[in-house]
Amino acid sequence: MTTRPLIVALDFPSKLEVHQFLAEFENESLYVKVGMELFYKEGPQILTFLKDSGHKIFLDLKLHDIPNTVKSAMRNLASLDVDIVNVHAAGGKQMMEAALEGLDLGTRAGCERPKCIAVTQLTSTSQEMLQEELLINEGLESVVVSYAKNASKSGLDGVVCSTWEVEKILEACGQSFLTVTPGIRLKSNSVDDQVRIATPEEARNRGSWGIVVGRPITKAENPLEAYKIVRNEWEGK
Ligand SMILES: O=c1ccn([C@@H]2O[C@H](COP(=O)(O)O)[C@@H](O)[C@H]2O)c(=O)[nH]1
């Protein structure tokens, strides 16, 4: 598996669809993302199944609450033995620090603490929505970079952002700060509800650490073939 992962978003209603999807990949070890839809239906057991099948896991629950609640929740998530967890940077620095404290408390001796990253602005958010609905009167890029700096100052390992903010974030937070970029589309794909989209090649050229790809693979007529096309473009083959 590449050190700059292609993370497949398992946005399925239940474990049945997950099993059907993964069956096509035979023995390939994937980096998968489990989000709210699947986790709220199946609970931690789905993570055990994925780990036992040899996959790495980004548990994408996007915590956003008061610091004490996030700390306690992260303490529990730490015991699930996943590779990445996340919060919303909009929760603020104190909340992000609390998330790390909870993870440190919950990580079992001898195990690695899950990496913790913060969502800056969702890739479905546009400049217009930022201003008109969220009432944030800054440029979107500057808001994203500013939230990334808060995440970095709080000790987090990286952020979720769009491909188009990666360069500025790496300049501001250092080249080893992780940038995970969803909103990835091949030229032939539909945009769906995403706004700040990029191709796998653009993500690679802009320096994304990892890309998250859901529907372009999971809804493809041939998911394994779609996965290989995305992976080849991401890896520059
Ligand atoms: O800003 C964000 C944060 C998370 N996501 C998640 O990534 C996948 C993208 O799925 P696609 O089908 O490739 O659009 C999905 O699970 C989102 O919840 C994001 O898109 N943007």
UniProtKB/TrEMBL annotation:
Binding site for substrate: 11, 33, 60-69, 123, 185, 194, 214-215
Domain Orotidine 5'-phosphate decarboxylase: 5-230
GO BP annotations, alphabetical order: 'de novo' pyrimidine nucleobase biosynthetic process; 'de novo' UMP biosynthetic process
Signal peptide region: none
InterPro entries: Aldolase_TIM (IPR013785), OMPdecase (IPR014732), OMPdecase_AS (IPR018089), OMPdecase_bac (IPR047596), OMPdeCOase_dom (IPR001754), RibuloseP-bd_barrel (IPR011060)
Keywords, sorted A to Z: Decarboxylase, Lyase, Pyrimidine biosynthesis
Catalytic activity, as annotated: orotidine 5'-phosphate + H(+) = UMP + CO2
A Gene Ontology term for the protein's cellular component: cytosol
EC number(s) on file: 4.1.1.23
Involved pathway(s): Pyrimidine metabolism; UMP biosynthesis via de novo pathway; UMP from orotate: step 2/2
Oligomer status and interactors: Homodimer.
Similarity comment: Belongs to the OMP decarboxylase family. Type 1 subfamily.
Name of the protein: Orotidine 5'-phosphate decarboxylase
Organism, scientific name: Schinkia azotoformans LMG 9581
